[in-house]
Amino acid sequence: MPAIVNLFSFLAEQPGFSETVTFDQLSQFIGLASSIKNDILAAQPPTHDPNDPPLLLAPHQRVFLTQTCNIPLEFIDHCWLAVREMVWRKTVEEGARLNDHQFEAWYTGRDFQLSGQTLWPPTQQCTNTNCPSTQLLRERDGIFPVTLFTLRNGARATYSTYLTCGGM
């Protein structure tokens, strides 16, 4: 069976899902979840394998997605289970990340400190050669509001993160 048939069959198993959630809402869910992949990863324990999507989203991520995609909260977990592999493999192109078509979603994201342009460190592991830790950098030492200046879209309100290593 083609993958799309499997996806829709799985989604239809949740009573009321097919009658409530549209394809556009599902597509927006996939796009927004892909944009906050680092945020999803940061909410996981340091031992989580970054190549595997988590089974559950953090509560604030669930509420963000229900508000921005207009999908009832009762369907968010089922929706995530259906598309999490797709979300985890999806790459977000720079132009798409800074596009205004999801501006309203990112305005809502401020309540949850989520943004499609959040600045993350370029590496997921400690770069100190003397550090014995093999765990990923996940201990968020803070998320700070910043202004990102772009050539294409001007100034954007977003966040910058600071991750620390628990090994040293």
TrEMBL record:
Domain CxC5 like cysteine cluster associated with KDZ positions: 117-165
InterPro entries: CxC5
Matching Pfam families: CxC5
Protein origin, superkingdom: Eukaryota
Protein name per its UniProtKB record: CxC5 like cysteine cluster associated with KDZ domain-containing protein
Organism: Rhodocollybia butyracea
Lineage, broadest ranks: Eukaryota, Fungi, Dikarya, Basidiomycota, Agaricomycotina
